[in-house]
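Feature request, filed as a ticket because there's no other form

It would be nice if the structure record came with a short human-readable summary line next to the tokens. Right now we just get the raw output. Example of a typical job, pasted below so the devs can see what we mean:
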Amino acid sequence: MEDVAYKKGRVGIEIIEAKKTIHSKVRNGKPEVVIGVRVTGNISDIETNDLDLTKSKTIHELENRVEQNIKRKIEQSIQKAQEELKVDIFGFGSTIERDEPEEWEKLERIWSKAFPDLSVQVHVEAKIKQIGTITNSILEDID
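Raw output as currently delivered:
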């Protein structure tokens, strides 16, 4: 479940499918990792009366907010692993070993020192598949 702030309320998106790819490369002796995440979700919960799900612009805006939320969470987790824990809990070293075995031989012995400075790019794509039944929010009656 991904909660997205929307104007004066929030929208809950149930993530029904998630796929990830992780690739690495070494440029000028410096390792880089690229993470791609694709999620598909359904709108499951709406707590705002400012939402018009009949407009594709609204759906795109929600998708962008889900992408931003997920990207932020991933980046914060990576940052914590690199700066506080200083441990490769995500297995990026294994990814480099798989993608660039010759370069990994050079990096392996210094990986604990190289990991905190590892460049990691995160790309997230979100699609909202179903929006449910479109009716006016009961919150309109409360205001």
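Something like this underneath would help us a lot:
Residues 82 and 116 are 4 Å apart (CA to CA).
Residues 2-132 form a domain with the GMP Synthetase; Chain A, domain 3 fold (CATH 3.30.300.210).
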